[in-house]
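Is zinc ion placement plausible here? Inputs below.
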Amino acid sequence: MRLKNNIQFLLILVILISCQKKKTSSKNTNKEEEAWSYSGESGPEHWAELEKNSECGGKFQSPINIISINAKIDSQLNSLDIHYEKSTKIHSVKNNGHSIQYNFEKGDYINYKNERFNLKQIHFHESSEHTIDGVRYPLVIHMVHANSTGEYLVLAIMAKEGKTSIPFEFLESFLPLEKGEVKKINKPFNLNHNLPLNRGYYSYTGSLTTPPCTEGVKWFIFKEPITISVEQVNILKTLMPVNNYRKEQPLNGRKIQMTE
Ligand SMILES: [Zn+2]
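Reply from A.M.:
I modeled the complex. Tokens:
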């Protein structure tokens, strides 16, 4: 009887210890996710070594500098088949410590080569990540879409300083947010109002510009910037890390296409 009790006690002890171990290891993973930044020892130059399972050291990374005279005009490229509805709701906004991110409910999508890419979230970089003929814009909006198999398609909209943007007034009315803070929004937002009038674009295949730097991302960068006011740029600037952009990555033979 005593032996049985001892065995039972030992079993419980083993289970408790293994649970404890699992807890610590999941904590470590969370810590690793927070490890990268935009400066110093955890800055972009160290992402590949910090994020061991990432593709940050890959050959086909983003962003790049788009040299327009080297981009090939492709008359087959149609304007993007964008389906943004005025009724689609923004679920929430988060200051994730790297950017300000607005998460969208299902509803907006882009059809590309007979596949549907659903809009997931939009976020900002200050200054822009891609440059066009060496020009870096004060701000860029990245609109991140994914298909059912988890492949990414990202639209980039450059913003220059000028006239106040009404859609930005709405987006920024939910700010400021502390680092890590999430705010529920649950209100419709018509993303069409954030698009430039001219829908011409550059296109190439690259990567996510933050760890895990996943490759195979279809990039569409609108040629024409939208306009937002200096004050509107500054609101985002004060809430995001200084210069939250990754520097130019080598093209390594990739071709850039553009609409006429
Ligand atoms: Zn981005």
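Short version: The pocket of zinc ion is lined by residues 123, 125, 142, 209 (CB under 6 Å).
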